[in-house]
Request: fold
Amino acid sequence: MKTGRLLFLCAPAAFLLGCGLLYTNIRLPRAYRSAAPSEVKSTGSDKAVSGEACARSLLFLFAWGDAGYASAAKDALKTEPPNAILYDVKSDISGQAYLVGLYAKTCTKVSGRVALQ
Reply:
């Protein structure tokens, strides 16, 4: 009898924790190697740029987005010529959750300087 009640009480929690996401398609940062100023043709007048990439989740069921370093670096270089190199990169990760995590947003932000090859 006690086992039946325990199973009845734990089943909703097991469903939410064990089957928490019905759809997941996200990329998160792991590591990113950037060039140092000594490795590129840098000058004192190189422009500073920044970029951001985000992933989102909704209702603990769906997650989507690309919050990776490569996507944030691509966003930083979107207005630069194709031969531009991002160097001296600094990064930060931020997260926001609303309504106890029913909607969450995680962003990777990068900033650095641009040199031309």
